[in-house]
From TrEMBL:
This is Methyltransferase type 11 domain-containing protein. It comes from the Bacteria. It holds the Pfam family Methyltransf_11. It comes from Azotobacter vinelandii (strain DJ / ATCC BAA-1303). One of its GO terms (molecular function) is S-adenosylmethionine-dependent methyltransferase activity. Residues 82-170 form the Methyltransferase type domain. The lineage of its organism: Bacteria, Pseudomonadati, Pseudomonadota, Gammaproteobacteria, Pseudomonadales. InterPro entries: Methyltransf_11, SAM-dependent_MTases_sf.
Length: 293
């Protein structure tokens, strides 16, 4: 069963309400650090978040309190980062989630610098921003939902809308983690192939919902990133605490980070040299400080 549409909204809202260990304790600590580091160097940044859900990332990043938000605890420059945000705009494909996000913004008194708009990312659908107008284009757990040609167009559009010194920071589930989870769940499952639509189960067996993903191997992601942008860092996300080791053993597999955060920069010209070493299939060893545990 592959769940899109209405059920997706219900599941996602429930996951947000109940907390999400994978996001709170594994992805955000790394993702928020990269976002904060970028912002500290870039005053008056316009940020866009694709597949923003209910805009929780923007709300937490701009207004969340540590220690309620574990990811913020280690981010010492958060106050400076927040000062440098001009606007934080979420684009989201589900009208119901946009409505929910608006409700939440209402509860916060409609802050002037956060917004959410309905926009579905699809091949050929131009993003509603001018060329070179955005400082930072981000997404969290979004690109797994895109079919390969939609992803390719999405990344090419990010390159178009980014300012010359702009960056894109993309956090997503490690395809190898997705693959292993898929195979572990059932001995009858065949290995996923690139662009195959499948049901990704949230939780151990779908107790938090079943979402439609298009599985893509890491080479596919990196080739698309590298074609339109410059890969400058890749961070592997492991839990920041041992607290969940027993209950959520799957997050603690050695050499199998649950998620990856890519930091991508706008290319300065058509012939700009790639940072992917020739013949290397993965960018994982590019930067000495890439792997954080
Ligand atoms: C797993 S949720 C992540 C939500 C949010 N990024 C977060 O981390 O809180 C994926 C989101 O992507 C949205 N989405 C999926 N396909 C989309 C598309 N083609 N265009 C825009 N949004 C899409 C879904 O509606 C959902 O809100």
């Amino acid at each position: 069963m592959v769940v899109d549409g209405e059920k997706m909204e219900k599941h996602w809202c429930r996951l947000e309400r109940e907390g999400n260990i994978g996001i709170d304790f594994i992805i955000n600590p790394y993702l928020y650090k990269e976002i904060a580091d970028f912002l500290c160097e870039n005053p008056e940044s316009k940020i866009v978040d694709f597949g923003a859900g209910t805009n929780m990332l923007a709300i937490q990043f701009m207004y969340g309190n540590s220690p309620d938000i574990p990811a913020l605890e280690s981010i010492k420059n958060i106050a400076q980062a927040r000062k440098n945000i001009d606007s934080f705009i979420g684009l989201e494909g589900s009208e119901q989630l946009v409505a929910k996000a608006r409700e939440q913004l209402g509860e916060l008194g409609h802050p002037g610098n956060i917004d959410i708009r309905h926009f579905e990312v699809r091949h050929g659908r131009r993003k509603p921003f001018g060329d070179s107008s955005i400082a930072l284009a981000i997404s969290r757990n979004f690109v797994m939902h895109l079919e390969k040609s939609d992803l390719e167009y999405h990344v090419s559009e990010i390159s178009r809308i980014l300012k010359s010194d702009g960056k894109s920071i993309i956090a997503f589930l490690n395809p190898s983690y997705e693959q292993k989870k898929h195979l572990d769940l059932s001995p009858h499952n065949k290995p996923l192939q690139t662009n195959e639509k499948y049901s990704f189960v949230h939780g151990s067996h779908g107790e938090h919902g079943v979402f439609a993903h298009y599985w893509k191997d890491i080479d596919t992601y990196e080739k698309i990133f590298d074609k339109h942008l410059k890969i400058i860092n890749r961070v592997e996300c492991f839990p920041i605490t041992d607290r969940f080791r027993e209950k959520y053993h799957r997050y603690y597999q050695k050499d199998l980070p649950m998620a990856l955060v890519y930091v991508l920069a706008k290319r300065q010209g058509p012939n700009h040299e790639s940072l992917l070493p020739p013949g290397r299939q993965s960018a994982r060893y590019i930067a000495g400080d890439t792997v954080m545990r």
